[in-house]
């Protein structure tokens, strides 16, 4: 009888996977970059850059992309990609606004209708992405590119190409512009999502499975990991993050517009990559993603204060992404 090779012990596989979860040199480098940006910004722009109000404004604006980047970290950790999160944010915003506006079942708490609509559609669209990729075996780039078009179409269709006013939803607006002990509520929510992501990735078997799937899919399958379920779940988690980001964005803008979220997917991917998560999968870091979000937010705030053109800002963004990928290749 032909012997069947034994599957690698799950404990050993999990241990190997956690190598990608350690605090790496790229995170140390980002801390240095953030400190350098603060020093340079203080020299060039003085109190207008160093003021507490400016820093909180930077972090408030970065929190939307930051929440998306936490979900994107899990997706990229499995060697996937999600190009649709920007359009999904727009669709979730409009879905929340439509549900609030057209269904009276939420009585005196219309903000609850918005929250349910935004997160609900985010989960549905994320699940469609996950099903197409994990069970339909569609390449992530193609599946999420299709969803980019579908979600934007849904946003335009539901809203009839017209923004939905949310000005009267004071509770919803608190998510975008409110404060807790002088700290922006959106920043607190971003850090809470990051904390949940860190625990999932670093302190649970689920996080080890996510990294293992990205590192070597077949080895993870042989070790007993339900690969399809893991891949499906990371896109659903990304969809939840989309819904939360939509709440923060609409709370700040006081409206649900079908054209918001453009290029958010690129900002989220860029923050994840410069944070140290490998585009090839198998290595992920939530701390690095948070530092990447802060780095990008500070860079563009400084460039804006210096009245530099959008073209220069785009060139800078591309240069940062290219440098981060080159650093990853050197590390590998």
Topology diagram in text:
Layout: H1 10-17, H2 25-45, H3 47-50, H4 52-77, H5 85-102, H6 110-134, H7 140-159, E1 164-165, H8 170-177, E2 179-180, E3 183-184, H9 185-203, H10 205-215, H11 217-222, H12 227-253, E4 255-256, H13 264-275, H14 286-305, H15 310-331
Antiparallel strand pairs: 1-4, 2-3
Descriptive notes:
The protein is mainly alpha-helical and about 325 residues long. It has a single domain (about 25-330), classed as ABC transporter involved in vitamin B12 uptake, BtuC, CATH 1.10.3470. About 75% of the residues lie in helices and about 0% in strands. It is built from 15 helices and four strands. The strands form two sheets. Strands 1-4 form a two-stranded antiparallel ribbon. The chain has a two-stranded antiparallel ribbon with strand order 2-3. A hairpin with a 2-residue loop joins strand 2 and strand 3 (about 185). Helix 6 (about 110-135) packs antiparallel against helix 7 (about 140-160) and helix 10 (about 205-215) crosses helix 12 (about 225-255). It is globular. The protein starts with 9 loop residues before the first helix and ends with a helix.
Q: What's the CATH class, please?
A: Mainly Alpha
Strand order of the largest sheet: 1-4
Order of helices and strands: HHHHHHHEHEEHHHHEHHH
Measured between the Cα atoms of the first and last residue, the distance is 42 Å
Q: What is the number of domains?
A: 1
Q: What is the CA-based Rg, rounded? A: 20 Å
Low-pLDDT sequence parts: 1-23
Counting helices, strands and paired strands, the structural category is: mainly alpha
Count of alpha and pi helical runs? 15
Helical fraction equals over 70%
Number-wise, the strands total: 4
Proportion of beta-strand residues: under 5%
**CATH domain fold name:** ABC transporter involved in vitamin B12 uptake, BtuC
The CATH architecture can be named as: Orthogonal Bundle
The biggest beta sheet is recorded as:
2 strands, antiparallel
Overall pLDDT: 87
């Amino acid at each position: 009888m032909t012997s069947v090779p034994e599957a690698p012990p799950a404990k050993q596989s999990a241990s190997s996977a956690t190598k990608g979860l350690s605090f790496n040199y790229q995170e140390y480098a980002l801390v240095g970059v953030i400190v350098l940006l603060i020093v340079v910004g203080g020299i060039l722009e003085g109190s207008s850059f160093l003021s507490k109000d400016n820093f909180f404004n930077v972090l408030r604006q970065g929190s939307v992309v930051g929440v998306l980047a936490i979900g994107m970290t899990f997706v990229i950790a499995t060697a996937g990609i999600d190009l649709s999160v920007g359009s999904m944010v727009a669709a979730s915003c409009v879905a929340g606004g439509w549900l609030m506006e057209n269904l009276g079942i939420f009585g005196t708490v219309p903000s609850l209708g918005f929250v349910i609509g935004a997160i609900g559609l985010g989960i549905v669209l994320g699940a469609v992405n996950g099903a197409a990729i994990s069970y339909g075996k569609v390449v992530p780039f193609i599946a999420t590119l299709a969803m980019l078009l579908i979600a934007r179409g849904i946003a335009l269709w539901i809203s009839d190409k017209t923004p939905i006013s949310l000005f009267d939803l004071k509770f919803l607006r608190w998510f975008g512009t409110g404060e807790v002990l002088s700290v922006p509520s959106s920043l607190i929510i971003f850090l809470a999502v990051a904390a949940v992501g860190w625990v999932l990735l670093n302190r649970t078997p689920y996080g080890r499975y996510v990294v293992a799937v990205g590192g070597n899919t077949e080895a993870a399958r042989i070790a007993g990991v339900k690969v399809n379920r893991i891949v499906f779940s990371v896109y659903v988690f990304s969809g939840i993050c989309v819904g939360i980001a939509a709440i923060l964005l609409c709370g700040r803008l006081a409206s649900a517009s079908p054209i918001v979220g453009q290029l958010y997917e690129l900002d989220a991917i860029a923050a994840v990559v410069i944070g140290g998560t490998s585009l090839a999968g198998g290595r992920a870091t939530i701390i690095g993603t948070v530092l990447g979000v802060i780095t990008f937010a500070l860079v563009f705030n400084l460039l804006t204060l210096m009245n530099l053109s959008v073209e220069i800002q785009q060139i800078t963004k591309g240069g940062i992404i290219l440098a981060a990928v080159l650093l990853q290749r050197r590390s590998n």
